[in-house]
Amino acid sequence: MRVVFLGATKGMGRALARRMSERGDQLFLLGREAEELQRSAADLAARHPQHAVVGTHACDLAVSSTFAAALDAAEAALGGFDTVVVTAGLFATQEAMEADAALAEQVLAVDFTGTVVFCEHARKRLLARGGGTLCVFSSVAGERGRKPVVLYGAAKAGLSRYLEGLDHKFRAQGLKTVTVKPGFVKTGMTAGLKPPPFAGEPEAVAQQVLRAIDGGLPVVYTPSIWRWVMLVIRWLPRFVMRKIGF
User: Fold this and answer.
1) What is the pLDDT of residue 185?
2) How far, CA to CA in Å, does 185 sit from each of 27, 92, 204, 223?
3) What are phi and psi of 196, to 5 degrees?
4) Per the confidence metrics, is the pTM higher than 0.85?
5) Where are the beta strands (DSSP E) in the chain?
6) What tens digit of pLDDT does each residue of 18-43 get?
7) Backbone CA torsion sign across 229, 231, 235, 238
8) Which PANTHER family does the entry link to (predicted)?
9) CA 138 to CA 160: how far, in whole Å?
C-alpha cells in the first residue's frame, strides 16, 4: 500500500506504522512536530532499511490550512496514494476540560472538526483515483454518553457517525472506511489513568487494526473485548447510567 499516515509518532500510531513498514508498505508521515516526524522516519528506516519512509510533512489537525499542502506533498512523493490512516488526536480528562474552557474547545475542535475536515480532503483525493482505504481512530468513548468522558466522548461520537455515513455513501464507489474504536490502551495518552483489567497494548492493537484494513472491515473494536463491554453499556437504562461512574 501507499500510505499517508497522520499520527505515526506516538502510541498506537507508531506501532501501526512499524507493522506497515515491516511488511513493505510505503509510508509518508504527517504530523505537527518536525523533529518527532524525523525521529519516527529514522526509527522506521533503522528497523526496516529496505522499506524507507518516502517522506514527511507538517500537518496539524488544529490548522486546516495545512491539510492541502500536506496531502499534495504526499501525493507527489508517493506517486499517488491508496490508503490514509489517521491516528492523531487530543485527549484530556473530563475534570480538566470542565475547569478549562479553552482546553475543552481545543479537544473538541481537533477530535471532531479538524479530523472530519482532514478526512474530507483525503476522501476526495482517494475517490478521484477510484477509491482506497480511509482508516480513522475514533474511540469507544463515543458509544454512549458517560460521566467520565462527556466532552471527549461527544467529539468521538460525532466522528464515528461521520465515518459511518462515509461508509454508507461511498463504499460502492470504492472507498473503504475503517473506523477504529479503541478501548483503554496503555499509551502516553492514558498515562496516569488507572487501567482496567482488559487494557490493551499498542502492538496488539496495531496487529488487529492492520487485519481490519486489509479486510476492509467498517468497524473494529480493540481490544476485541470492548465490543461486548460497550454492547452491555449501550443497553443499560438511563437511570443506571446516572448512578454508575463508568
Assistant:
1) 80
2) 24, 15, 10, 8
3) -75, 170
4) yes
5) 2-6, 26-31, 55-58, 83-86, 132-137, 175-182, 219-222
6) 999 999 999 999 999 989 999 998 88
7) positive
8) DEHYDROGENASE/REDUCTASE SDR FAMILY MEMBER 7B (PTHR44196), SHORT CHAIN DEHYDROGENASE FAMILY PROTEIN (PTHR44196:SF3)
9) 6
CA distance 113 to 60: 12
Residue located via cell numbers 483489567 = 197
Is domain 2-243 classified as CATH 1.10.540.10?
A: no
Position 199 scores a pLDDT of 73
- The answer to whether residue 192 scores a pLDDT higher than 90 is no
Site of grid cell 463504499: 171
Identify whether the C-beta of residue 90 lies closer than 8 Å to the C-beta of residue 36. Answer: no
How many angstroms separate the CA atoms of 164 and 146, rounded?
A: 21
Q: Which stretch of DSSP H or E encloses residue 14?
A: helix 11-22
- Structural domain spans, the chain: 2-243
Phi-psi region of 223 (alpha: psi -120 to 50; beta: other; left: phi over 0): beta
β-pair partners for 162 = none
Q: Is the dihedral of CA 122, 117, 77, 214 positive or negative?
A: negative
CA atoms within 13 A on the CB side of 202: 18
Q: Which 3 state secondary structure label does DSSP give 185?
A: strand
